[in-house]
From TrEMBL:
The enzyme's E.C. designation: 2.4.99.16
Superkingdom per UniProt: Bacteria
PANTHER family per UniProt: ALPHA-1,4-GLUCAN:MALTOSE-1-PHOSPHATE MALTOSYLTRANSFERASE (PTHR47786), GLYCOSYL HYDROLASE FAMILY 13 CATALYTIC DOMAIN-CONTAINING PROTEIN (PTHR47786:SF2)
Subunit structure: Homodimer.
Region feature Disordered, mapped onto this chain: 232-261
Catalytic reaction equation(s): alpha-maltose 1-phosphate + [(1->4)-alpha-D-glucosyl](n) = [(1->4)-alpha-D-glucosyl](n+2) + phosphate
Protein name per Swiss-Prot or TrEMBL: starch synthase (maltosyl-transferring)
InterPro entries: GH, GH13_cat_dom, GLGE_C, GlgE_dom_N/S, Glyco_hydro_b, Ig-like_fold
Domain Glycosyl hydrolase family 13 catalytic: 190-509
Organism field: Microbacterium insulae
Length: 642
């Protein structure tokens, strides 16, 4: 079933035609989940391919039903024939009488407003008046007011219906959000003079929430909070030997203190977790919890359900691998031996955390588990709680990643992390806005605790600013992992992840000091989220159009939302012009198809840079200069005409 989120402007399209030369019309009949019915006119695309489209903003959660209805449009058929024949002097009287009869028929419809009926009766009389010559008759044929009457209430000769189809509309957070990830054990952590570190916990981490809120984020994502095993515990930088005090990876889940339904004692208690969720809500944040179906060798599952794991010929249990990466501290759960048991246990775990207040799950490596399992789990949970959102962390092959979305995941990680050049980004943005938008919602994380791309490693501060601006404006959902605002860009040699990775140690960061010194990207992230809140066009996925520049590093795209589809009732248009090369100053000409937002080519319009406040008069061809070190991106708001 295709899906959308509440408030999304959804395009509905159909191929419709009939034999011969008579004109047709198409309607879209919608039924909301609560039973309300609405009828929408559908417009033919001027491409000669018999495609018809309309866009509707859907404002109610649940399953909508819809069907297309096609009909012979008697007015358009007559209007076209009369316009040609009367001007050519062919069948003039016949065309006039056919029009008069059509207008009489429409004027007799009791549901038409009285003013329309009066106008139509007058037009009928005029067409039958011999004193009115060719010009007078053509004036009636071409009268735009009469055409509007018939467009709103067509006169039909024949009609047909398409099949009844369904569309799932989920809550707004399923498609719109600004995510921020932190490790609770690092928030509130303190480093002593002798080098020892006192970890943070679920209580101390609450102090970081106001800063996350003030940067404009609305989803707080945390890695697993469960007990961590000691057997094969990883040390700093993924070493095989943990030193005393090394906290281990939170993905090595399970110890004598419990498994997936427990909180690690060093982080606090279940009551502390519930207090953490409540504090997040008080700060306008939803908590997203990692769902990682991994077990450390110390997990209760290993002894209670050994059939849930793969045994090697030597009798040992196979640990997780993603060659060349090895995860000796993790046993992946094996579904095939006891699927009933595994399904039931994971369902119990998810329900448990929902009962603690969790409404979003970021699912770790879902592509390594059966697709049918995820389809079953998400459908089961959403039948009970339609508001629960699942994010697939699946940097996998396109078909696998897309099939997970079709199986029910409300959001998906994507290839954005590795799309850096102008050409790559043009192709990627076009794809997510068109090819996969009916079923897959990308969450454009700029980095993760596992991913530090070469672009960020070597692009310096400009790279961080550019990637955040693109993620925040190109898709309605984006995310940041803590440390991004401090430009943490040193990689472990030979890898695409941070050295001194937070997965294996406690990070002590001076957030306030960095911002006071002007060494933080927090003000930039704050402004990006402010712009997103103020401009509904940026909270849509399907409305992105690529435009052009003469420079191979200057990316140009626009997001337009007509007034009829906007929650503000006002048209909203944003133009983004970005220098994708973080090492240079670029100047070039930018070329825009201004017809996208209703401005004719060559016609001037006013824009305001929402970053700097500068205002310019633009048209369809404009000069830009973008300095990656000072102003790498224009985020321009097209001002409405006064």
């Amino acid at each position: 079933m295709p899906k959308a989120f509440n408030g999304e402007a959804v395009p509905f399209s159909v191929t419709s035609f009939r034999e011969g030369h008579d004109r047709i019309g198409v309607h879209l009949r919608l039924h909301s989940p609560s039973g309300d019915e609405s009828l929408h006119g559908v417009t033919a695309l001027e491409n000669g391919l018999d495609r018809w489209v309309t866009t509707v903003a859907l404002l109610e959660d649940g399953v909508w039903s819809f069907r297309f209805e096609a009909f012979g449009d008697d007015f358009l058929t007559w209007q076209h024939a009369a316009d040609v024949k009367i001007e050519a002097g062919v069948d003039v009287e016949l065309m006039r009488e056919m029009g008069a009869l059509l207008f009489d028929r429409a004027a007799a419809e009791k549901d038409r407003p009285a003013a329309e009926r009066k106008t139509l009766s007058g037009a009928s009389t005029a067409l039958r008046d011999e004193q009115i010559g060719v010009e007078g008759a053509l004036a009636v044929v071409r009268d735009p007011a009469i055409a509007r009457f018939f467009a709103q209430r067509p006169v039909m000769s024949i009609a047909s219906q398409g099949p009844l189809l369904e569309l799932l509309v989920e809550r707004e957070r399923a498609g719109v959000g600004s995510w921020y990830e932190f490790f609770p054990r690092s928030e509130g952590a303190k480093r002593f003079k002798d080098g020892r570190v006192k970890p943070g916990n679920l209580r101390t981490a609450r102090a970081r929430m106001p800063a996350v809120r003030d940067m404009g984020f609305d989803v707080l994502y945390i890695p697993p909070v469960h007990p961590i095993g000691m057997t094969n515990r990883k040390g700093r930088n993924n070493t095989l030997t943990a030193e005393p005090g090394d906290p281990g990876s939170p993905y090595g889940i399970g110890s004598p203190d419990g498994g997936h339904d427990a909180v690690a004692p060093e982080l606090g208690t279940m009551a502390d977790f519930r207090a953490f969720v409540r504090a997040a809500a008080e700060n306008g944040l939803e908590v997203a919890l990692d769902l990682a179906l991994n077990a450390s060798p110390d997990h209760p599952w290993v002894t209670e359900h050994p059939e849930w794991f793969v045994r090697l010929p030597d009798g040992s249990i196979a640990y997780a691998e993603n060659p060349p990466k090895k995860y000796q501290d993790i046993y992946p759960v094996y579904f095939d031996t006891d699927p009933v048991g595994v399904y039931a246990e994971v369902l119990r775990v998810v329900r448990h955390w929902i009962a603690q207040g969790v409404t979003i799950f970021r699912v770790d490596n879902p592509h390594t588990k059966p697709l049918e399992f995820w389809e079953w789990l998400i459908a089961t949970i959403n039948a009970e709680r339609p508001d629960i959102v699942f994010l697939a962390e699946a940097f996998s092959r396109p078909e696998v990643m897309q099939t997970l979305a079709k199986a029910g995941f409300q959001q998906s990680y994507s290839y954005y992390t590795w799309r850096n050049t102008k050409k790559e980004l043009e192709e990627f943005f076009t794809s997510i806005a068109t090819e996969t938008a009916d079923f897959m919602r990308p969450n454009l994380f700029v980095n993760t605790h596992d991913i530090l791309t070469e672009y960020l490693q070597f692009g310096g501060r400009p790279a961080y600013a550019i990637r955040a601006a693109l993620a925040a404006t190109a898709a309605p959902t984006w995310g940041v992992y803590a440390g991004y605002e401090l430009f943490e860009n040193v990689a472990r040699p030979g890898s695409e992840e941070n050295i001194d990775n937070e997965k294996y140690e406690i990070k002590v960061r001076d957030w306030a000091g960095a911002e006071a010194r002007g060494e933080s990207l927090a003000p930039w992230l704050r402004r990006l989220n402010e712009i997103r809140r103020e401009h509904p066009a940026l909270r849509q996925l399907r409305n992105l159009t690529i435009h052009w520049s003469d420079d191979d590093a200057i990316l140009v795209y626009a997001k337009h939302l007509p007034a009829a589809l906007s929650p503000t009732g006002r048209t909203d248009t944003i133009i983004v012009v970005a220098n994708t090369d973080p090492h240079s100053v670029r100047q070039t000409m930018v070329h825009l198809d201004t017809r996208v937002w209703g401005v004719e080519p060559g016609e001037p319009f006013e824009v305001e840079d929402l970053v700097t406040g500068a205002r310019w008069t633009w048209s369809d061809h404009n000069f830009v200069m973008l300095d990656a070190f000072t102003d790498p991106v224009h985020i321009l708001h097209v001002k409405e005409k006064s």
